[in-house]
Amino acid sequence: MDTGLKGKVVIIMGGSSGIGLESAKIFLQEGAKVALCGRNREKLHQAESYLKKDVQPGHLYTEICDVTDKHQVNDFVANVKTEFNKINVLVNSAGYSIMGHFLDITDEQWQEQINLKYFAIINAVRAVYPHMKEEGEGRIVNLNATLAKEPAPHMVATAATRAGLLNLSKTLSTELAPDNILVNSISLGVIRTDQWEKRRKRDNPTESPEKYYADLAKSRNVPLGRVGEAEEVANVILFLSSSKASYVSGSNIEVAGALGKAI
Hints:
Elements: E1 9-13, H1 18-29, E2 33-38, H2 41-51, E3 60-64, H3 70-84, E4 89-92, H4 107-135, E5 138-145, H5 156-175, E6 181-188, E7 191-192, H6 194-203, H7 209-219, E8 228-229, H8 230-241, E9 252-255
Parallel strand pairs: 1-2, 1-4, 2-3, 4-5, 5-6, 6-9, 7-8
């Protein structure tokens, strides 16, 4: 299937690991040029090594960037434009969750989630918008979670900010439509990423990954009976960024193994 992504320029915010990294891999395989950022230089070097076999010369750009710092984001996007001369796709994949009930969450933790779930997206969209407008088209994909529609008492700060991001994504889809910029979001269920790997190694270091994730899927009542893989999310990101999704905007697609219960 021709995705129409050959030669397109894709920015992945938070692309040095997990879903962002797998997305970079398949975009590169489609012939796109990819720019990804992260806060950790070592992880960026590891990402470059991982992507090495899929990279054509001059198709990968990486940079240290804190997505919650608008000045760093502006500089990163400007450098990508200089490097590749255009910007076609933005994937907002940076994020992490905070566990805790309402009375346990500190002001600092609330602010962290607001910065990451709102301002990181706001910063990135503001930075890429003029370049996408110049191109006469664009694709923006925001990673979200099923928590956006199904509040969880033990993840109140994450769930509340996820709900706001769902609303923001919908609003952006209508406001940017006149410029042919399509905005969609993806709601994740339980996906095997670095965040879950850290929890596994912390909580069950002697247990095999296979058993850990099988038990996790069972405890979370995932109807498909297993956790998802980062590559499975990346495939949906690829579709939403492709020419095959030319009339898809304002949508939220669940990649959750039928976990989400909200209509």
